[in-house]
Specification:
3 strands, 3-stranded antiparallel sheet, 521 residues
Length: 521
C-alpha cells in the first residue's frame, strides 16, 4: 500500500480524525492505569484538533483552487488515477465550507470537554465516565471526518461513527426518559441511514464511482445527455439518488415533518452533549451534507433540478420555522424549549439554501456558525442551572438572574441573539437572509422571518423576564455560580456571540460569502 498527496494537501487532514479515534481507544487504557490523566488527555487532544483545524483553514484560504485534497490508496503501475481521471483510493477534499465546520466542531468540542470535567459528576454515573469521554471523542472524530471527506465511502463511515456515538451519549445517564428518547432517536436515525445507503448505491450505479468530484462530473454528463443516448437511462437513477439523499439528510436535520425525534433526544442528553447535538450534530450530519450533495455533487444550481427543489425547500423551511417556534412557546421545561427552538433555527438554514443564490447560501452558512455557538451557549447555561439548583421548569427560575448573575447574563445574550437583537450575531445572519430574500425577488417571504422573530421573542424573553422579575416558586437554600471549568466555556461562547455580531464583515466577507460562491461555481 502506498499513498499519494493531492492538491495543496496537508497531512493534518487525515491526522485530525485519526488522532481523535486513536485517543478515544486509548482513553479506557488510561482510565484503568490512572483515571486522573483521563480528562487532561481529552482536553489536550481537543486543543490539538482545534489548532490543526485552524492550520487547515489557513491552507484552504491560501489555495488557488479554493480547496485542498489529500489522496491515499494504491498506486497501480505508478499511477494514482484511472484512465477516466478517477482517483484510486480514498480522497479527502476540504473546501472553505468544510474548513469552517471543522473549526466549529473542534472548538466547541474543546469547550464541551472542559465543561464536562465537573459537570458529568452530576449527570453521568461514575462507572460510565470512561465511556462518556470515549464516545465524545468518537463523535468529534466522526463529525471532523464528514467535514473533510471527498468520497461517499468515507462520508458514510464517519456519518455512522458520529451517529452511533450520539445515540449512546443520549442514553448514558441511564434515566428512563433518556432511554426512551434514545430508542426514538435510533429508529429515526436508522431510517435516515437506510435511505442514504440506497442513495449511495444508486449514485454508484449511475456514475460508477464513489468519489464526489468525479460523480459530479458524471452526473453533469448524464443529465445533459440527449434522449436516446447511452447515458440517458441513468437519469432516473440520478433523480432517485438525489431524492433519497434529501430525505435522509432532512431527517438528520430535523426538518418538518421529521423533527419529532429532536425534541425528545436533545433535552434527554447531558447538557454538554445537548450542546454538541444542537450545535453540531444536526448541522454536520444534516444540513452540511445536504448542502454538500445538492450543490457540490448534484449541482442543482446549474439548472438541473432547482426549479423543483427550490419551492419545495421554501415550503418545508417556512413550516419548520413556524412550527418549531409555536411548539417552543408552549413548553414549560427549559431544555425542551431550547430543543424546539433548534428545529425553528434549522428552518432558517434551509430557507437560505432554498434561495439557491450566493447571498442566500452565505446567510445559511453564517447562521450555521452563529447558531452552533449560540445554542451551545444556551444548553451549557441550562446545564449550570440544573447542576446548581435542580431547576428544569421555566416557571421555577424566579430571581435566578440575581443569584447566578454570570450564567443568566450569558443566557440573556444568547436569547437576544436568537430573537435577532442587534448587534448580536443572530441578528446579522437573519439580516443577511432577509437581504438575500429581497435580492432573490421574493420579498413576501420576509413575513415568515418577521413572524418567527416575534415568536422567538415571546418564548425567550419570557425566560429572561421570569429570571429577573419573577418570584421564586421553590426554596433553594444556597445558590451561587458554577465552578470555573463550567463557567469559562459559557463566557467564551457569550463573548463570541457579541464579537461575531459586531465584526460580522470578517466572517461574512472573509468566509461565508466566498464559501457560498465556491459551492455554487
Amino acid at each position: 500500500m502506498d499513498s499519494a498527496i493531492g492538491i495543496g494537501a496537508s497531512h493534518l487532514q487525515i491526522l485530525v480524525p485519526v488522532i481523535l479515534i486513536a485517543s478515544a481507544l486509548v482513553i479506557p487504557i488510561i482510565s484503568r492505569l490512572n483515571p486522573k490523566y483521563r480528562e487532561p488527555l481529552v482536553l489536550l487532544v481537543t486543543v490539538a484538533g482545534f489548532t490543526a483545524s485552524l492550520a487547515i483553514l489557513t491552507k484552504v484560504l491560501a489555495s488557488p483552487t479554493g480547496y485542498i485534497e489529500y489522496l491515499t490508496g494504491y498506486h497501480w503501475g505508478g499511477k494514482s488515477q484511472l484512465q477516466t481521471g478517477q482517483p484510486i483510493g480514498i480522497a479527502l477534499r476540504t473546501d472553505l465550507f468544510g474548513a469552517i465546520l471543522l473549526i466549529l466542531i473542534n472548538g466547541i468540542g474543546f469547550l464541551a470537554s472542559l465543561y464536562s470535567c465537573r459537570y458529568i459528576h452530576h449527570e453521568v454515573p461514575k462507572e460510565k465516565h470512561t465511556y462518556y469521554y470515549t464516545l465524545l471523542l468518537l463523535m468529534l472524530a466522526g463529525m471532523s471526518g464528514i467535514a473533510i471527506t471527498g468520497d461517499c465511502f468515507n462520508f458514510y463511515v464517519f456519518f455512522e461513527i458520529a451517529s452511533i456515538s450520539s445515540y449512546t451519549l443520549v442514553s448514558i445517564s441511564g434515566r428512563p426518559e433518556s432511554l426512551e428518547a434514545t430508542f426514538k432517536y435510533i429508529l429515526t436515525g436508522a431510517l435516515s441511514s437506510i435511505l442514504i445507503v440506497f442513495a449511495i448505491g444508486l449514485l454508484f450505479n449511475a456514475t460508477g464511482t464513489l468519489n464526489m468530484n468525479y460523480a459530479s462530473q458524471q452526473i453533469a454528463k448524464i443529465v445533459g445527455s440527449h434522449p436516446g443516448s447511452p447515458l440517458s437511462p441513468y437519469r432516473y437513477l440520478v433523480y432517485a439518488s438525489l431524492g433519497l439523499f434529501i430525505m435522509g439528510f432532512s431527517i438528520k436535520a430535523a426538518f418538518f415533518p421529521s423533527h419529532a425525534w429532536l425534541a425528545d433526544a436533545h433535552p434527554a442528553a447531558p447538557a454538554s452533549i445537548s450542546a454538541l447535538l444542537s450545535g453540531l450534530i444536526v448541522k454536520t450530519t444534516g444540513v452540511f451534507l445536504l448542502i454538500r450533495f445538492v450543490f457540490t455533487v448534484f449541482g442543482i444550481h446549474k439548472g438541473y433540478y432547482g426549479e423543483i427543489i427550490s419551492p419545495l425547500f421554501l415550503i418545508i423551511s417556512s413550516i419548520t420555522i413556524l412550527s418549531g417556534s409555536l411548539f417552543a412557546i408552549v413548553q414549560t421545561q427549559l431544555k425542551r424549549m431550547l430543543a424546539y427552538s433548534t428545529i425553528a433555527q434549522m428552518g432558517y438554514i434551509l430557507f437560505g439554501i432554498a434561495l439557491i443564490t450566493p447571498y442566500g447560501l452565505a446567510g445559511s452558512i453564517l447562521h450555521i456558525v452563529n447558531h452552533a455557538i449560540v445554542k451551545s451557549l444556551m444548553f451549557l447555561c441550562s446545564g449550570i442551572i440544573l447542576y446548581k439548583t435542580g431547576i428544569r421548569n421555566i416557571t421555577d427560575m424566579g430571581k435566578l438572574g440575581y443569584r447566578m448573575p454570570a450564567t443568566m447574563a450569558c443566557f440573556t445574550i444568547g436569547a437576544c441573539s436568537l430573537v435577532g437583537i442587534p448587534p448580536m450575531c443572530g441578528f446579522m445572519s437573519k439580516w443577511v437572509l432577509a437581504t438575500a430574500t429581497i435580492q432573490a425577488g421574493m420579498p413576501w417571504l420576509l413575513i415568515v422571518l418577521l413572524v418567527s422573530s416575534l415568536l422567538n421573542a415571546v418564548y425567550y424573553f419570557r425566560v429572561v423576564a421570569i429570571s429577573y422579575f419573577g418570584n421564586p416558586k421553590i426554596e433553594i437554600e444556597t445558590v451561587d455560580e458554577a465552578s470555573k471549568t463550567m463557567l469559562i466555556p459559557v463566557c467564551i461562547l457569550a463573548v463570541l456571540v457579541i464579537i461575531l455580531g459586531v465584526l460580522v464583515k470578517y466572517p461574512y466577507h472573509g468566509a461565508a460569502l466566498p464559501a457560498a460562491r465556491l459551492l455554487l461555481r
